[in-house]
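Worked example

This section walks through a single chain of length 258. The input is the sequence exactly as stored; nothing has been trimmed or padded.
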Amino acid sequence: MRRLRERLTYANVMSTVAVFGVLAGGTAYAANTVFTTDIVDNEVYGSDVRNDTLAYGGLGHIDLRPGSVRASEVEADSIGHSELNASAFVPGDISRSSSSGPFGVSSNAIQSNEVTDGALAGVDIDESTLSGFDGHDDYLDRCDTPADNSFRECVSVTFELGHAMQVLAILGGGASHGSYTADNSKAYGECQVRLDGANKLAPIAMENSGSSNTGMPTISDVISLGAGTHTVALACRENPQDLEFEDLTIAVVELGFD
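Given that input, the structure is written out below as tokens.
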């Protein structure tokens, strides 16, 4: 034993420990001893990274160099709401290179449920693109109503509102005597505004004599409506003398933002 201790050196001990380390199942490394120079370029693959479903798995933002992830590294349609941190993005992070729209966003790509209520101001919106400024209209050049003095819906507009708002309805037209009598008997008629099938305003009377044409006073009405589908119509009727309604127009303008 004395001779063995005299010949036992530090190198002998460390080499023996290394042998047992290899036999025990692999190479052991102390912490912070593997650096980029120890790794052959292009030799680390996805299978070498711990699965992100395991504890301490996956790569975090601290593992990525700023500016190292670009469009080519992102799979199409792979980023959803859960992957986005709104406070982390700045204008420089979003490309404006696409000619299809601001920030390179395709038309109709952003839906209303993706915008926080009250987040957009007037300067953020091109009014000409808003459906709330669109008019809904229709035109009919001639409407011959029944001779039994019953109303007939001559022209109508159906539209849908995203939420409750007021709309401006404008209706107009004229009438002519369709079959002239020897004594130029007067022909009478009237038109009624209808909202969703129910009469809305008092009828507008029209009177025509002989072969002359007569105009109908323009009807304007601001209507408060709830969200959903609505129909504004113009229904007309005549007395037994034939009165034909002409150039009937109806327009509905939303007085709010859809």
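What to look for: The mean pLDDT is 75.
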